[in-house]
C-alpha cells in the first residue's frame, strides 16, 4: 500500500516519490504500528508501537472517578484453530433485525437472555451499557489459539491509547513464547485452551484505573487500533456521545463472522423517536405467498419517438427522447426551446 503523509514543518522541496531509505544496522528504519515488538533476525528494522507516539495537542484525559468509572475487558479472538467463529468474549455477534436506536425493545436475542456459559461460544446481540459522562476504560485483548493480530475500530469516538502490552518473545530469535501475563483468564486459562472467560488484571492493584504504565499526559487519539496477538491495548473515552456504536474488527470476514459488539452509550440522553418514524424489520413471519405475489402490471407512457428535434426546456431534455440523434457525436444543447447538436464542443 502507499500513502501520502501531510504534516506541519515538512520541507516543501522534498520529493514525495523519493526512493525508500537504505536500512542498515547502524541506522535502522522505523516501522510504525508493528503488531509485535521487533522483527526477528532483522536488526535493520525498528518497531515503533502506537503507545510510543505522543500527541502535540493539549487534551484532558478522562480520569478515574469513583462511582463514575467503567472498565470492559473485550477479547477479540477466534477461540479454536479451525472450527470456531470470530467472537468478542466468546460471543459471535448477531446483527439485530431492527434499528437498535429506534426499536431497542424489539431486539429478539440480546446476550442477557442467551444463557451462554462455560467454555462455549454463543450467538447473540452483544450489547455493552455505558453510563452517561462516565470515564470508560476498555482493555482490547487478543487471547486465543489463532496467532494473528486484529485491527479493531470504534464508532462514535476517538479514544486515547494509554498503553499496549505485547506477548512474550524470544529476544534473540523473535519467536513467540506465551501470552502477556498482565491478563488473567478465569481458571488461569492459557492459549492451549480455547477460551479466555471473565478476564481481569492479574495484579489486583491495577483495578479502578490504576494500571501501571498508563500515559495520562499526552497519549495519541485514534478510532482504530491494532491489537497484537497474545497482548492487549488499554483505551479510554468519556461517555458523552449518546448512541449505539459498533466496536468491531476492520477485517470484513471477521466482522461478518461475528467479531463485533454494540456499545449502548447514554441511552436515557437519546432524543425521543419522532412520531411516525419508519420502522424496520426483517421478513420473518411474513407469508411467503404474499412476498412472491406477482405485482400488478405498471402502465407507463412510452417515450416519444420522432425524427424531428423535440422541444426542450433544458439540455437534459434532449437526451430523454429516442429520436434520430445518433449522428450527433457532440454535446446536445437546448437553444430557444429546440434541441441542437453543438458541433463546436
Low-confidence stretches: 298-306, 319-326
Spatial extent as radius of gyration: 29 Å
Q: Tell me the span between the first and last alpha carbons.
A: 40 Å
Largest sheet: spatial strand order:
4-3-8-17-10-15
| Average pLDDT reading | 82
So what's the overall shape? Answer: globular
Give the helix proportion (percent range).
under 10%
The arrangement of helices and strands along the chain is EEEEEEEEEEEEEEEEEEHEHEE
Number of strands: 21
Strand content: 25-35%
Largest sheet features: 6 strands, mixed
User: Helical segment tally?
Assistant: 2
Indicate the structural class.
mainly beta
Protein name: Plastocyanin-like domain-containing protein
Domain Plastocyanin-like: 112-265
Keywords: Copper, Metal-binding, Oxidoreductase
GO molecular function, one term: oxidoreductase activity
Describe this structure in words.
This protein has 345 residues and is an all-beta fold. It has two helices and 21 strands. Strands 4-3-8-17-10-15 form a six-stranded mixed beta sheet, with no helix packed on it. Strands 7-19-18-9-16 form a five-stranded mixed beta sheet. A two-stranded parallel ribbon has the order 1-2. Strand 20 (331-335) and strand 21 form a beta hairpin. The radius of gyration is 29 Å and the shape is globular. Mean pLDDT is 82; it is low at 298-306 and 319-326.
Amino acid at each position: 500500500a502507499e500513502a501520502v503523509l501531510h504534516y506541519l514543518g515538512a520541507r516543501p522541496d522534498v520529493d514525495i516519490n523519493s526512493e525508500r531509505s537504505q536500512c542498515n544496522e547502524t541506522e535502522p528504519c522505523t516501522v510504525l504500528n508493528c503488531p509485535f515488538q521487533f522483527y526477528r533476525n532483522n536488526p535493520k528494522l525498528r518497531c515503533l508501537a502506537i503507545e510510543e507516539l505522543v500527541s502535540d495537542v493539549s487534551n484532558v484525559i478522562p480520569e478515574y472517578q469513583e462511582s463514575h468509572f467503567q472498565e470492559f475487558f473485550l477479547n477479540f479472538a477466534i477461540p479454536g484453530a479451525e472450527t470456531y467463529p470470530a467472537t468478542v468474549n466468546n460471543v459471535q455477534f448477531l446483527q439485530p433485525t431492527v434499528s437498535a436506536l429506534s426499536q431497542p425493545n424489539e431486539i429478539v436475542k440480546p446476550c442477557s437472555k442467551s444463557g451462554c456459559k462455560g467454555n462455549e461460544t454463543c450467538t447473540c446481540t452483544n450489547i455493552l451499557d455505558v453510563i452517561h459522562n462516565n470515564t470508560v476504560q476498555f482493555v482490547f485483548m487478543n487471547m486465543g489459539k489463532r496467532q494473528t493480530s486484529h485491527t479493531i475500530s470504534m464508532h462514535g469516538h476517538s479514544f486515547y491509547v494509554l498503553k499496549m502490552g505485547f506477548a512474550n518473545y524470544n529476544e534473540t530469535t523473535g519467536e513467540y513464547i506465551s501470552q502477556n501475563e498482565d491478563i488473567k483468564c478465569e481458571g488461569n486459562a492459557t492459549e492451549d485452551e480455547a477460551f479466555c472467560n471473565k478476564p481481569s488484571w492479574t495484579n489486583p492493584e491495577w483495578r479502578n484505573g490504576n494500571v501501571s504504565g498508563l500515559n495520562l499526559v499526552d497519549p495519541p487519539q485514534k478510532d482504530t487500533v491494532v491489537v497484537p496477538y497474545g497482548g492487549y491495548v488499554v483505551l479510554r473515552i468519556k461517555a458523552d456521545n449518546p448512541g449505539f456504536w459498533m466496536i468491531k474488527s476492520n477485517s470484513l470476514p471477521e466482522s461478518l463472522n461475528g467479531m463485533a459488539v454494540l456499545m449502548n452509550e447514554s441511552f436515557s440522553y437519546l432524543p425521543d423517536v419522532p412520531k411516525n418514524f419508519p420502522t424496520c424489520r426483517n421478513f420473518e413471519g411474513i407469508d411467503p405467498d404474499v412476498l412472491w405475489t406477482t405485482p400488478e402490471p405498471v402502465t407507463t407512457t412510452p417515450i416519444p419517438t420522432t425524427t424531428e428535434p423535440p422541444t426542450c426546456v433544458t439540455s437534459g431534455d434532449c437526451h430523454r427522447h429516442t429520436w434520430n440523434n445518433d449522428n450527433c457525436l457532440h454535446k446536445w444543447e437546448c437553444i430557444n426551446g429546440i434541441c441542437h447538436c453543438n458541433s463546436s464542443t
